[in-house]
Write a structure and sequence with these properties.
By secondary structure, this protein is α+β, with helices and mostly antiparallel strands. The protein has helices at about 10-20, 80-100, 145-155, 155-160; strands at about 5, 5-10, 35, 45-50, 55-60, 105-115, 130-140. The protein has a domain at about 75-165: GMP Synthetase, Chain A, domain 3, CATH 3.30.300. The protein is globular and about 50 Å long. The chain starts with a strand and ends in an 11-residue tail after the last helix.
Length: about 170
Amino acid sequence: MSEVNNIDLDKVRRTAERAQENGGHFPVEKTIEGTFNLRGGSPMFTATLQSDYSSFTYSADEPSALGGRGGVHTTPPLSYLLFGVMSCYASTLAIQCALRGLKLGELRVTGKLFYDLAPPVVSGEEAPIIKRLELHVHADRELGDLIEISRGGRCPAVYAISHPPIETVIRQD
């Protein structure tokens, strides 16, 4: 196994080969089904997430300012979003470094999400809820262009929150 920065480069290369064989694409679908607790109490929302080897049940509450339980479980759910973006961005950056043979001794990411809680509860003109997302990267090496390369379309989570529209499909059982 060829490993750099805790990235298995053999697996990355196999994925790249499969993508090239498929016209430069490697389609994947991620589906998670969750349940909102309508009967009261905490947690307010739960879902089970799957990995290659296990499953994990995640729970979330809304902050008390939005009528939630405020801290019994992770609140607000934006914490999960921020964690996911940070994790994905750090992994993408580590992959980009590994592909170039750049070994890191340290890689830390601090995420800051600036948002407004008024739009969900105040009627009137829609205002942007998310004001800004900052990712602060600390590494023991100069990363130069790899920072922008990783952010500019190679990180699935960063891309997902900044580009495609979200489609809501109503399903009644």
